[in-house]
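JOB MANIFEST
job_type = single_chain_structure
chain_count = 1
residues = 127
[input]
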Amino acid sequence: MITLSIQQREQQFANLVRAYRKKHVGKGPEKIKVTFQNNWAIAHMSGSLSPVEHFMIQNENGRDMIRQARTQMIKELYNQIPPTDMEELVGAKFEKLFTDIHVEDDEVISIFVFDQPIDEQLKTNCI
């Protein structure tokens, strides 16, 4: 049996976020830092926007469309296609996603909410 540290599991979670977004959105973020806190997995991401989206943010309408797509539509996506591999990693059921983007800086904060605390559970469980 292999024991993984919290940091290793946070990195695995980051890899799962990147893979999920790449599969369902077309481009995953270049950098992701994940922190587990109680029943949250908090992900700070940068480098998520595609070249076309960078072009679109040059005007207000484009920024609004990107903000809508990268917040509301992403939340709907996670509701329609739950991240079961993330659930398996943390040993809890995904409940909802809170997310926001700072379009001009290409930074995203996403908070994945699970049905039970994941930080203490991960300290005591092994894979």
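[summary]
The longest strand covers residues 94-102.
The mean pLDDT is 91.
exit_status = 0
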